[in-house]
Amino acid sequence: MAFPATHKWTSLLVAIIVATICLCAPAEAKSNSSVKDSHKTSSKTTSKSDKKSSKKSSKAKKSDNKKTKKSSEKKSKKIKIKADDPKAFTKALLYDKQGVEYEIVETKKSPRRATVPENPQQPPPQDSLKQASAPDSVNNENASTQAANQAQVPESNQPEARQAEDHRSENNGEFFDFSTMLLPITHEALVGSPYGIRSHRLHRGVDVNVIKDEPVVAAYPGIVTMSRYNKGGYGNYVLIKHPNGIETLYAHLSKRLLKVGDEVFPGDIVGLAGNSGRSSAAHLHFEIRYGEVNIDPTTVIDFPHWSLKEGVDQFSMKKATAAHRKIQAKLKNYNYYIVKKGDSQGDVANWFNISIESLCRINNLKPGAPLKAGQKLRGSK
After folding, report:
1. Residue 78 near residue 95, CB atoms below 8 Å
2. Is 379 helix (H, G, I), strand (E, B) or coil?
3. Per DSSP, what are the bridge partners of residue 272?
4. On the CB side of 95, how many CA atoms lie within 13 Å of its CA?
5. List of the chain residues with pLDDT < 50
6. pLDDT score of 335
7. What is the pLDDT of residues 262-313, one digit of tens each?
8. Paired strand residues for 171
9. What would the 3-class secondary structure string for 332-358 be?
10. For residue 291, which of 23, 25, 265, 318 sits 20 to 30 Å off, Cα-Cα?
């Protein structure tokens, strides 16, 4: 019987085919999964690379923006100084020392109207026609008012009148306005020796620590009344009288750049700082005077911060005068010298650190007169 044998062989073939199909299916699944995984990884890498490139581009843009901003800031950091600023000179010196770029800007002036020459061919302006048609009484009244105004303030006295008005506005007797004052130095500085009684005499100003040969500038406009060398004390010094009644003194200069009678404007260089006269190191001796009253400069100026103190626009002259009288009364206990045998007027003047003329004026002495041993002399009133 052949049929049962063929049936056995066919069943074996079917089993073999089924087994091979079962074996091949997992491999195909694995290959498909590997392909999918490779697609996923490739997509991930591409997305990461895209993100990185976008981040790099954004960072580059930000860096470019920062560079442009920095460059624009550098360009805009150029400080502008107005030419009509009274502190323009001192600001320029300060910025030079700090290495800061600055630019002096001129203020725009209103253009003057050009005067048109009279042309007889052109018709006269309407204003002249109105004046011509006006009654004589009106013209006479206008002329009389103009003449009265001119008579009140003559042209030659107009500057003096303006100075007097400025003086009255700055000093009304009780208060003084120091808000327009310039500092005599061009940077922050410490005070080496303050105002007050020092040993047996009055130190009438402050000693400010400065660098030798640096510029010293005028605090106010004014006229130079003294520019000389004092061997015993001040060395090279300059005294300036200001229209507001204040006097300022600049001493121990290495070089004086002004002479008596020179007109000074705020910020003009008075001289170069030094240690001339009775001085052990470079410093500026600076004084503020108002008549016979010595004003402590540190009540007006904050030297360590290179600024004026608060409230200097209403500086009390009563308080300054009271402080001056108080220190003068205290000075009487210290400020005297008993003459020894052989002492001359020059010896005593050097001991007080004043001039012989001042010593004679304070003690009612004749210049060159001999001194008696045991005589008591004072160095200030």
Report:
1. no
2. coil
3. 215, 255
4. 16
5. 1-3, 35, 73-74, 112-169
6. 74
7. 999 999 999 999 999 888 899 999 999 999 899 999 999 999 999 999 999 9
8. 176
9. CCCCEEECCCCCCHHHHHHHHCCCHHH
10. 265
DSSP 159-191: HHHHHHHHHHHHB-SSEE--TTPPPSSSS---E
Alpha carbons within 13 angstroms on the beta-carbon side of residue 28 total: 6
79-82 and 102-105 beta bridge pairing: parallel
Q: Residue type at 26?
A: P
Q: Report the distance separating Cα 333 and Cα 197, nearest Å.
A: 11
**Whole-angstrom Cα distance, residue 209 to residue 186?**
12
Residues 6+ apart with CB under 8 A from 226: 237, 238, 239, 260
What DSSP element (H or E) covers 301? strand 301-302
User: What pLDDT does residue 112 have?
Assistant: 45
Q: Which residue carries 């200001």 as its tokens?
A: 242
308 half-sphere exposure, CB direction, 13 A CA radius: 16
Q: Strands 283-290, 206-209: parallel, antiparallel or unpaired by DSSP?
A: antiparallel
- CA 82 to chain centroid: 13
Taking the model in full, what pTM does it have?
0.54
Q: Decide if 223 contacts 261 (C-beta within 8 A).
A: yes
